[in-house]
Amino acid sequence: xxxxxxxxxxxxxxxxxxxxxxxxxxxxxxxxxxxxxxxxxxxxxxxxxxxxxxxxxxxxxxxxxxxxxxxxxxxxxxxxxxxxxxxxxxxxxxxxxxxxxxxxxxxxxxxxx
Amino acid sequence: xxxxxxxxxxxxxxxxxxxxxxxxxxxxxxxxxxxxxxxxxxxxxxxxxxxxxxxxxxxxxxxxxxxxxxxxxxxxxxxxxxxxxxxxxxxxxxxxxxxxxxxxxxxxxxxxx
Lengths: 113, 113
Prior knowledge:
The complex is a heterodimer of chains A (113) and B (113). In chain A, strands 2, 4, 5, 6, 9, 10 and 11 form a seven-stranded mixed beta sheet that branches. Chain A is built from no helices and eleven strands. Chain A has 113 residues and is mainly β. The termini of chain A are far apart. Chain A has strands at 4-7, 10-13, 19-25, 31-38, 42-51, 54-57, 65-66, 76-78, 87-94, 103-104, 108-112. In chain A, a hairpin with a 3-residue loop joins β4 and β5. Helices cover 0% and strands 56% of the residues of chain B. Chain B has strands at 3-6, 10-14, 19-21, 23-26, 31-38, 44-50, 56-58, 64-68, 73-78, 87-95, 101-103, 107-112. In chain B, the strands form three sheets. In chain B, strands 2, 5, 6, 10, 11 and 12 form a six-stranded mixed beta sheet that branches. In chain B, a hairpin with a 5-residue loop joins β10 and β11 (101-103). The chains are: A mainly beta (113), B mainly beta (113). At the A-B interface, β4 and β5 of A face β6 and β11 of B.
């Protein structure tokens, strides 16, 4: 089954404790992206990657890191999480940039205390 | 850069009534336009998209949208809604030459019995 998977689905952590949210897709997509969803703000793009070893900042990259060492994986790293990073996070992938449909993962709900 | 405005944050409507969810965008370049739907506790899935050609676009579940370049709008419509259409709907835009997808703040559609 074609899908985007994220782990963990739920995470509660404390300020400053490094964490990684994994994202994997099995569709051989070139393009991958991370978003955060907050009430009243819709989805805002954190980082995106147009291919292996190519990443770029989205609208809200501060406090986040990403890497794209393999085509299928695009982990999101929070080196020192803070309470304002409490949010619902989505990973997405598409065949290419531009007009292609983005396929979304199920989401990761992160709470930083 | 592009921006998207969804004019209504909440739209309540009775079952079998028609509905229109409004979306306006701003961009200085050619764009692609999308509508995504998010059912409770799920990721987003594509309803429809406009890339070029006919300005009336048909999507899944009986939804359609019309691209109006002069009014920079991409309103979503359905002639008769069902309870199962209750969800949050997001309009999104990307520049034809870029990888970044910009979302609106979302419209919660609630279908009442």
